[in-house]
Amino acid sequence: MKNIPSKRFKKIIIATDNHGHYICKKTEAAFFKFVEEWQPDIRIHLGDNFDLSVLREGATQSDKMGNIMLDLESGMSFLERYSPDYWLWGNHDDRILRFLGDMSKRLKEEERPSKAVTSLEEVGAFMMLKEIKKLVASKGIKEIRWGVEQGVLKLGNQSFVHGYAAGMYATKKMAEVYGQVMHGHNHTGDVYQFANHSQSVAVCVPSLCDNGALDYQRGQISKTRHKSGWGLGVLDKLTGNFYHGLAVKMGENFFIQEPKVL
Fold first, then answer.
1. 235-253, pLDDT tens digit by residue?
2. Are 259 and 233 in contact (CB under 8 A)?
């Protein structure tokens, strides 16, 4: 783990899809143990730090009974401990903005929820957004909001996005749009290699959440392909090339494919 020359190469760690209080405690513990040992230079979060089932379109009564404060506390706790350099919002994180509409106008009006806020969900989401803003500012986290065009982080020749495709060929679709890319959203750990001389790859980073606990996914066949883990890689500052690795939970253990410079 310590054989990477720091002047030319930068170690990057990638977390994604912890989904607030749905985070898998065993995966979380293994992840932070690895972070402590590997000592990455750059930390990235690919999104869905919060779950916010209570705010999703078509939310069931069961969803609405979910504890938004527990979701907030769990997600905030993870962000504070991880302290990413970059946080790309996921579609679950973006539910706050979609639910409340144009929050910028409301935040300018007053420190407390405005008269336009009419439900407990809105009050919770409003206060949640304010707490997120405070934490992001205190930690110096660079936010990249969710969206196919705006939600892209570029480091060297490598792109990082939350993920904007579904299904078995989602990572292939992401490759067709973004080229060499690491993405979250699908929880699968899939790897797609381009059929060209560049040997570039697109990678879906496994999730940090307890995949079995996401009740709204229990009717989706794709759930059987979900994996727990995280991403990592080495960026060559001289060439801009990026070499990826993955940590994937298999059984009770985590197997780590780590890029090394020899």
1. 999 999 999 999 999 999 9
2. yes
What tokens were used for 15? 């977390």
Taking alpha carbons only, the member of 189, 167, 198 closest to residue 246 is 189
Number of domains within the chain: 1
Q: How confident is the model at residue 193 (pLDDT cuts 50, 70, 90)?
A: confident
Which pLDDT belongs to residue 63? 62
Q: What pTM was estimated for this model as a whole? A: 0.88
Task: Assign residue 142 the CATH number of its domain.
Answer: 3.60.21.10
Number of helices (H), then strands (E), in the chain:
7, 12
Stretch 187-195: mean pLDDT: 89
With a CB cutoff of 8 Å and minimum separation 6, the contacts of 155 are 12, 42, 235, 242
Q: How far apart are CA 154 and CA 181, in angstroms?
A: 9
b/e string for 64-100 if b means 16 or more Cβ within 10 A? eebebeebbebbbebbeebebbbbbbbbbbbbbbebb
